[in-house]
C-alpha cells in the first residue's frame, strides 16, 4: 500500500527542493547500480566507485572546447568514429584512454569532461575528467599551449568535491574519493614541446636538471591530490614521443626515423619519476600510488606495427599524416581510407584502435597494486 497524501500536500512534495534532491539521488543510485558490465576482473575486496583523470590531450574528453586555445579539436574530422560521428573534443577519431578505463572497470561508457556544459549531476558519483590538451607538469607548458594548468585542474577538482559533498554528504563523498581511481597522464608536452620544440627551457636547464623540475612538480601535485582525499593514484609515464609522426618530421631526418634523443629523454625522466614515486610511497604509506608503464607497450606497437595488424606506424591518418594536428587536421584535410590500418590518428595522437589495445593490458598488469 502506498501512503495516502492529501491533494493539498502533493503540490508541495513535487515542487519542493526535498523532492528534487530525492529524485536526483535516485537517478544517481540507478546510474551506479546499473553500471556497464566490467570486462576487467578486479582483485578480491576491491571496489572502485569512480574514476578521475588529470592530464593532457591523451586523456582530455572536451575540457578545452570552450577555451581560446590552439589545443582544441571539437570539429571534424576528429570524432568521426565516435558515437554519432560527433567531434567531442577528444584528440582522436573516437574514444580515448579515459573512456576505455571506465569501460574496462564496468563503471560507464564514457568519462565526461568536467567543463562539459551538459554534464549531468548523476555523472559526479562515477567520475569526471579534468584533463586539458596542452597541459604539463611544468607550469610554462600550459601557458604556451593556453591549457588548464595542473593547479587549474586541481581547482576544478576542489570545485567538484564541494558539489559532491552537497549531493551525498561528507561521509559518502569521502568514501568515493578514498576508493576511486585517480589517473595522471603528463610529461610528453613538457619534454617534446616546452624543452625541445620551443627551446625555452633549454636556455635555462640541461635535461637532467629540467627532469628534476618536472619530477618535483609531479610529486607536489600528487601530494595535493592526496591531501584532497585521493588514495589510489595511477601515474602513467611519458610515452616514446620521439616516434610520433610530428617529431619524426621535425627532427627525424629525411627518412623520418624515431628521434632517439627525445625517447632517451623520456626514459631518463621516467626513471626519475619512478624513483620519486617510490619515495612518495614511503612518505605517505596510506597512499596506493602506482607507476604505470605505457612507454614500452606503445613503442612496441609503433615499431612492430604489423604484428598488431597495422600497416602504417610513422604517419597519421589525417592529411599527409606528418604534421597535421589540432587545427591543421580539419575538414579540409583528407583522411586515410581506413584508420584501422594506422597507429596514429593525427601527427601526435594514436587512433582509438591503439588505445583499445593498450588500456586493458595495462589495467590488468597494475590493478592489484591499488588494493
From TrEMBL:
It comes from the Eukaryota. The chain crosses the membrane at residues 12-34. Keywords: Hydrolase, Membrane, Transmembrane, Transmembrane helix. The keyword Transmembrane helix applies. The keyword Ubl conjugation does not apply. One of its GO terms (molecular function) is triacylglycerol lipase activity. Its EC number is 3.1.1.3. One of its GO terms (biological process) is lipid metabolic process. GO terms for cellular component: extracellular region. PANTHER family: GDSL ESTERASE/LIPASE EXL3, GDSL ESTERASE_LIPASE EXL2. Belongs to the 'GDSL' lipolytic enzyme family. This is GDSL-like lipase/acylhydrolase. It comes from Medicago truncatula (Barrel medic). The lineage of its organism: Eukaryota, Viridiplantae, Streptophyta, Embryophyta, Tracheophyta.
